[in-house]
Amino acid sequence: MGLEARPAMWLVADADTKIYILGTMHALPRGTEWETGRVAGAIAAADELMMELSPAELAAAGEMFRTLAPRETPLAIEARLTGKALTGFRALEASGRSFGEDGLDDWAVMVLMGQRVAQNAGLSSADGVETGLTEKFEAAGKPIGGFETAREQLMLFETLDPQTQRILLTRAAEDAGDAVKEVGALTAAWGRADVAALEKVINEDIDSVPAARKAIITDRNRRWSAWIKRRMAQRGTVLVAVGAGHLVGSDGVPAMVAANGFKVTRVQ
Question: Residue 63 and residue 58: Cα distance in Å, rounded?
Answer without folding.
Answer: 10
